[in-house]
Each structure stands twice: as structure tokens, then as C-alpha cells.
Amino acid sequence: MPESSHPVDPGHYDPSNMPFVAPCRQLDKSAPGRWLYMGWQDIRTAPRQSLLYGFVLMLISYTVAYFSYQIGSFIMMVAMLAGFMFIGPVLAFGLYSISRQIQQGKKPVLGYCFQEGRRHFGNEMVFAAILLVVFLIWARAASTIHIFFPVEANPDISDLAIFLGVGTAVGAVFSAVIFCASALSLPMLLDRKVDVVTAVITSINACFRNKGVMLLWGVIVTLCVFIGFFTATLIILLPLLGHASWHAYQETIDAHAWPSHNGEQ
Questions:
Q1: Which pLDDT score, from 0 to 100, does residue 151 have?
Q2: Cβ(206)–Cβ(24) under 8 Å?
Q3: Across the strands, what pairs with 260?
């Protein structure tokens, strides 16, 4: 990854003089394939750590789905799974750390992932709070959309068209907002001494400047999550997506204006 021509001196780091947004690179349509390939190589390099992390995330997802279905309905379960996709980037923080350790030539250690998680706990909680607020608004909007549900006892597909159309459109808007804000921001928070606002703006800016590629990446992420959930392959697909997201950040964002958390450039 090419460095900025003026990397910051960690000893003279002044947050008030940093840019508002990190520059991004233009991506070609083969980029998501490269990210998945590099993510798979990370799994092969650290299979025990990656799959153990994937197993924990899979347990969380199935537990959320089970209790959602028990206290609600199938629609509630789908809504909670959508919410899980919202907070997924925060839960994948440890996977970014594994990829970063591999990139630095270290042997990945899960304990180090937890240490980094504690170190970035403040930023993670701020980001999680933002996602929670968006999810609660989305859940309220999803509840409101039920006014479009047909009153007939056995509605056919034509009767459901408006309900499904409005629901899909609203869900797509919320999903796009969350995806753009989180696609590259959390890996940046792990990698560099940057605030949450700058990381989120950087991620949104990169997504808008690479609309086609990031739309394709978003579709791949969504399909992998749903396929993984219904085929019990989340234990592999979640680590794959987490590692691939780290490489997406590395290829897309030039963050060398900010010092690394370990003092490296």
C-alpha cells in the first residue's frame, strides 16, 4: 500500500491539524474478488483464531434469532437479523485485528485482539450507539410500514406488492446508510489514531466515490450473511467477510496522514 508523501511524525501528532477526511483510491470492479481472496488467505494463515471467532459470532446470531422468534414472529426474527447485520462490523473488530497482525508479520493471538478491543472500547461504544439509534429508528419505521399490509385474510402477491415495495425501499435506505458509514471506518479506527467522525466521513466518502464497486461489495456481504445463516456456514463466511473488510480498507483508504496505533507508518 503506497504511503502518503508526508506521513505524520507520531511524536508531533496534533489532532486539531489533521485533515477532515482521508483520501481514497479509485477501485476497479475486480476489487471485491481480491478482498475475498486475501480474506481467505488470512483464514488459512490463522484458521484456529479465525474459525473460533466465527463460531462465537455464529452462536450470537443464532441466539438472537432464536429468542426473537420465541418472543415475536418470523418477521421479528428477520428484523433482528437485519439488526445483527447493522452491528456486525463492531463485532468483527477482532477479525480486523487478526488480519492486521498477519500483515505485520506477527503470529495472530486472540488475546491481543481483546487487548485492542479494550483499547478502542470508547470508539467502539460510540459507533455502536450510533448504530443502535439507527436500528431503533429502522425498527420503528418497519413497524409503521405495516399500515400497508393488506387486510384480507389470504392476500395474494399483487395485494402485497405495495407493502413489500415500501418495506424493501425503506430497508434499502437504512442498510445503505449503515453500510456506507461502517464499511471502512472501523478498520481505520483500529489501524490509526483517528476519531469516529473522521473515520465515518472517510468511509462514506470512499463509498460515494466508488459507488459501483461498493454496491457490489454490499450485495456480496448481504448474500454471504443470509446464505451463511440458512446453511450454517457463518462460522466460515463471517471470518471471511471480516478479513476481507480489512483488506478493503487497506486498498481503498490512504490513512498515512494519521499515526498508527503502534507507531508504525
A1: 58
A2: yes
A3: 192
Distance of CA 21 to the CA centre of its chain: 19
* pLDDT at residue number 245: 94
**What are the angstrom distances between the C-alpha of 243 and each of 44, 62, 187, 190, 240?**
11, 21, 10, 13, 5
Query: Model confidence over 122-162: pLDDT tens digits?
Result: 666 777 777 777 777 776 776 676 666 665 656 666 666 76
Location of C-alpha cell 460510540 = 126
**Gap between the Cα atoms of 29 and 43, Å rounded:** 23
Torsion angles phi and psi, residue 253, rounded to 5:
-105, 135
Residue where the block lists cell 479465525: 50
Q: How many CA atoms lie within 13 A of 89 on its CB side?
A: 32
- Give the separation between CA 195 and CA 193, rounded to whole angstroms: 7
b/e burial code for range 117-143 (CB count within 10 A of at least 16 → b):
eeebeebbeebeebbeebbeebbeebe
The residue ranges of every structural domain in the chain are 21-148+157-252
Closest CA to 85 of 222, 236, 243: 222
The residues, any chain, with a CB within 8 Å of residue 264's CB and separated by 6 or more, are: 104
